[in-house]
Design a protein that fits this description.
Its EC number is 3.1.1.47. Keywords: Hydrolase, Lipid degradation, Lipid metabolism. It holds the Pfam family PAF-AH_p_II. This is Platelet-activating factor acetylhydrolase. The protein has 377 residues and is an alpha/beta fold. Helices cover 29% and strands 19% of the residues. The chain is built from 9 helices and 12 strands. Helix 3 links the parallel strand 4 and strand 5. Helix 1 crosses helix 2, helix 3 crosses helix 8 and helix 4 crosses helix 5.
């Protein structure tokens, strides 16, 4: 694989396919990248990690405040591919795959969590990674009804003189609403509604119709997406549980904590969380005995995104110091904990059971068999 990025392939039994989906011709539509179990296909192509050059400009602006021009960014990572089959043939499943709606972090986009989305899809999930339109993505766009016309939605910093909480709180509500709309999209498809994918007619959403189990739906996200997942539980009873990777709890209003009805798995990195933020998570766990808070030692915030797999000095140029834990091990811990949690709360038949001890670690004990992971309950 070219460039400075080597993303891992999924470790589960299924090959993984991937397609972009855009529905609707307004901001109120949806844009997502779908990761799904697929059939093997000779000569499958792999999709670009950064799908278009516009995103390089957006990422350069977000991560580097233009300190480093986007041309260099695109030379360094523009040719990187994701090790999945682009628009590969969907593998039907009569009993239905469980569904995960995934929400990205601040300044990210739908592709920057390909490693964890691919891993989950390889174990038999359909994962819909949203690209949010609340001005929190590095940049994004929608296609107006006029042929070929795109309207771009740039990343926006907190406007001067505005309180950050109010700005972010409005965004988190929009994001959670988009998660609910994504679920509605799949419910519609499963109910036989014909939904055109306006990006490429050659990947037809109707192939999903009889292969989703929409009684088994979870919501997941990283950072701003982690708190988005928690809020989505409040807004939508069909979400059975949430997995929050290093959730940024700040934008959620206090009055909503008692309203979170379902279990959350918080998987935190060692360096990002503040005592205030963890206290907020503990308020949720005191209300819901199934909520778990786990900290993965030796990791930093970016380690839960694909950026963990950027090789060489590029990573430190952008983010500073990286975690001491090997990113492949960190990903394995994150996905094992998530799979064990999802198996329990979506009542899945698959045997992810050997990982149950990840959820049972109590106190400051080192969790059995996973020396890098400490439960902080």
């Amino acid at each position: 694989m070219g460039g400075m990025l080597a993303l891992p392939a999924g470790q589960g039994p299924h090959q993984v396919g991937c397609a972009d989906v855009m529905v609707g011709h307004t901001r109120q539509g949806l844009f997502l990248r779908l990761f799904y179990p697929c059939l093997p296909r000779a000569g499958a192509t792999e999709p670009l990690w950064i799908p278009r050059s516009e995103y390089c400009g957006g990422l350069a602006d977000v991560t580097l405040g233009r300190r480093w021009c986007s041309a260099l960014f695109s030379i360094a990572i523009g040719s990187c591919k994701v090790p999945v089959s682009w628009k590969g043939p969907f593998k039907p499943c009569s009993r239905g795959y469980p569904l995960i709606i995934f929400s990205h972090g601040l300044g990210a986009l739908r592709t920057l969590y390909s490693s964890v989305c691919t891993e989950l899809a390889s174990w038999g999930f359909v994962v819909a990674a949203l690209e949010h339109r609340d001005h929190s993505a590095a940049t994004t766009y929608f296609c107006t009804a006029e042929a070929g016309t795109e309207e771009w939605i740039p990343f926006q910093r907190v406007p001067q003189g505005q309180k950050e909480f109010y700005f972010r709180n409005k965004q988190v509500h929009q994001r959670a609403q988009e998660c609910v709309r994504a679920l509605r999209l799949f419910q519609g498809i499963a109910g036989g509604r014909s939904v055109p994918n306006i990006l490429h007619q050659d990947w037809d959403l109707s192939v999903l119709k009889d292969s989703l189990d929409l009684t088994k739906v979870a919501v997941m996200g990283h950072s701003f997406g982690g708190v988005t997942a928690v809020l989505a539980l409040v807004k939508e009873p069909s979400f059975r549980c949430a997995v929050a990777l290093d959730a940024w709890m700040f934008p959620l209003e206090n009055v909503l904590y008692p309203e979170v009805p379902k279990p959350v798995l918080f998987i935190n990195t060692e360096k990002f969380q503040t005592p205030e933020s963890v206290a907020k998570m503990k308020r949720l766990s005191s209300r819901n005995s199934q909520t778990r808070i786990v900290t993965v030692l030796g990791t930093v915030h970016e380690d839960q995104s694909d950026f963990a797999f950027i090789t060489g000095k590029l990573y430190s140029r952008i983010f500073g110091s990286r975690g001491t834990l090997d990113p492949h091990k960190a990903l394995a811990i994150t996905s094992r904990a998530a799979l064990a949690f999802l198996q329990r709360h979506l009542k899945l038949e698959e045997e992810f059971g050997q990982w149950d001890e990840l959820l049972e670690g109590v106190g400051d004990s080192v969790v059995p068999d996973v020396p890098f992971c400490r439960s902080k309950l």
